[in-house]
Each structure stands twice: as C-alpha cells, then as structure tokens.
Design a protein that fits this description.
The chain is of the alpha/beta class. Helices cover 30% and strands 17% of the residues. The protein is globular and about 75 Å long.
Amino acid sequence: MSPNGLDAATFFEHAGGITYSDFILLPGHIDFSRDEVTLETNLTRNIRIKRPLVSSPMDTVTESKMAISMALLGGIGIIHYNNAPEEQVREVRRVKRFENGFITEPVILSPNHTIRDIDVLKETHGFSGIPITEDGTLNSRLVGIVTNRDIDFEQDRNKCLKEVMTTQLVTASSGISLSEGNKILKESKKGKLPLVDKQGRLVTLMSRTDLLKNEDFPYASKNKEKQLLVGAALSTREEDKERLAELAKAGVDVIVIDSSQGDSVFQINTIKYIKSKYPHIDVVGGNVVTAKQCKSLIDAGVDALRIGMGSGSICITQDTLSVGRAQGSAKVYAHIPVIADGGIAHIGHIVKALALGAGSVMMGGLIAGTSESPGDYFYEGGVRVKKYRGMASHEAMEKGGGKRYLSIEDHVKVAQGVTGTVVDKGSVIHLVQYLMQSLLHSFQELGFKNIQELHKGIYEGTLRFEKRSSSAQVEGGVHNLYSFKEPHLGVLRMGR
C-alpha cells in the first residue's frame, strides 16, 4: 500500500465487495476556512439543491411533514407510494402549498372532546395549542382554543373542552401576509393566531414557533414560483400512469421510479413514457449497481440514477436472493447525477458516498424515528421508539409495497425487508443541521471546497483512499475505555 494511499481507480480495481467501513479517506491540504465550503449539488440534470440530502420514499420515512422539512433544509423529500393515488397527491400538494409560518391543516377538536383527547394528541404529535370549532373540523366556526395553561393543572382529564377552553380570542382575517400575522403575534404575545373568514370560520393557523424559524432556512429548495421542491415515487405498472397524471397536476418536481432492480424493460418503457408525456418533470431511475444497468437507463433518458441494492439497514435482498452489491463497490461514474441509496448509517458514510461520485445521498434509517417521520411513538423496553420497515417487508407489501419488487400479484410473497423499531431522534431539523455542520468539517479536512472539486479529485487522483483492516476499524472508533458516553443523535433535540 502506498504511504500516500491510492487513487480511486487503483484502489477499487481488484478490491472486491467494499462497504463504507472498509476504507478511509486520507486528509488533504487545508488552505481555506470552513465558511468557504459549499455543499450545493445537482440532484438531477435540471434540479440543483443546496444540500446533498434526499429522504427515502418509504412509508415510515417520507410524507409531507418530512418532505417539507427536507426542502427547508436544502434537500428534498420523495413521497412514498404505498398508498392510494389521491393520498400521495394530497401529500405532494401539502408540500407545494406550504408557506413557513402557516399551518394549512391544523389539528382541531370540538367543544365536546375531552382534555384526555388533547393528552393523546400531545403524546403522538406534540401539539400545544388546539383550536376548537363547533364541529371539530376546519372551515367550521371557531369557538375557542386550548393551550397548556388551560389544562396543565386540571385533575379531571375527562372534563369537556368547552369547560376549560379560552374563548376571548385574538384572530385575524384569512389572506393576511406573513409579516402582518407576525406583527399581530408579537403584539398579542400569543403562540397561535387563528385566521378566520367573514363568518368566523377557521381557515388556517399561524404559529409563533414556525415564524421564529422563518429565517433559519437560507438553503431552502424552491422552484421559480418560490414553492418547495418535492418528489414522488412511482412504480412501472400500467395503472400508475393515472397516478402520474395527478402528480403532474399537483406540481411534483421529480419522479423516482421505485424498483429494487431497475434494469428492466418495464422501467425503460416507463422512463420513455414520462419523458415524452411530461418533459418538464425530471426522472430518477434505479436501483442499479453496475455500469451495464446504468447505461440501459441513461439511454432511456433518465435525469439521475439511484445506486444501491440490498445495503439498507432493513433490507435482506442480498441474503434472500443472493443478488446485489456492497455499497462501496456499487460506485458508478456516470455523466448524469447519482444518488447513493443504502448503507448511510452516519455522517462518515455521507462523506464516503460523495467521495465515490454521488451527488447526493438517500437516507432512510438515519432519519427514521424523527418527529417528522410518519407513524406514532410508542415504548419498547422503556425506550421511546417508532416503527421502521422495509418496503419489501411482509407488512409493507400487504399495503402495496410489493409494487417495487414486481411481486404484488404473487400468491406467495418473498420478503426482501424486515420490520423493526428505531429510537426517537427528535426533530429532523436539528439532526440534519448537525449532519451538515459535520460534513463541512469533513470537506475541509479533505482539502476540497465543494462537491464538484471532490469529484474532480476522484478522476485526477488527488483524492486518496486506503483500505481499513478489521483492527483499523476498531482503532478508528472508541476503544480501551472502562466506560464512555457515546454522542447520540437523539440528544440533538433542542431543549432536551
């Protein structure tokens, strides 16, 4: 092994199946400050994002709440399709309608609900101010609001909300601007501002919490109309052409064809159909792990490739079918953007994925368990967790997840994924901010100011690689201590 490491071509030529843990990147020369590092990248041929992060189209990872957060943070979320077409379209529209500070679909209760109902909502969703309308629905007359101070010291949790709700309300007319609403909130010192129509019916809600965050997202991914960017997953099945048509009407920016093995005539035909029918929508093809597979999809007209097969934390494809590839060896140098999908367990894996030619990384398990991921928290062995499952687990396939595996009609379904749990990680906002700060540090240590320079280093040989033995991997982690407290992603939650 060279004392200065090896260039990528030499290192991987006869390396065999390499995972992210099997190699290390050697440091470069630092002649710039960390503030000079930029992480802007091409998601596809035509879409650029400020941060190289994509949330996976899994039904325990990405719906509108996650997609909104990812776009605000500079990445993008891909809405899963393990649902009815109208449900997926509704999630896309929620992202497109989002305006920071406005809650367009607030949780609402009626006067006849009880304090216990709010306790349940707080446990599962974390809401603190609940508007009360006559019938407990939006566009019904607003009659009150319940906040923590109304119920915190109330012993009888079965008491109806009409007995404890605040009825002296500060409201504003629907249609006011964000700055006008912000001014009213500041003057009233309220946490929530209900917006009502002329008949006093609740239309939407403004939140002081969201307004305080309004300047915290300078890297937000938006289109020319200032709407947040969002993607949606699609299968190659004929009936999904109707789903695609509705997604296009909803304003989806990118379609990810979700398949475990992307090199198929079904995907090629789907790519050609989308590009001919909706040329303004970019298409991500995959999943693929070989150059031959990539060429098939590039020739068909894809705008980006999704690389990875069987390396996800809940995926068992490699064990079940003996087909796939170690994620480090699945690198593909293409002339279009590449998304590394699978095996991203921590910040170091993000760095290595980018160092192997990816323009962005797709995250599933890393951000599962955050408050923005779908599903409710529950306790398992005294630990607060959320469910996380592979789209080819038996459980997910029962809901339609088998579409990506061409097995939805199979009488005997072969699982290529499992169902498990992940620990509560708090908000994805704080988690991603931590990850990106770490990524900036990494780029400085490597001596590259941006992703484009990093990729140039692959071809020119200035980015150097070294193999890690099993003992080197042990040495590179915490060792030889009697005890230690490991930094945990869950402690990144603000205020905890």
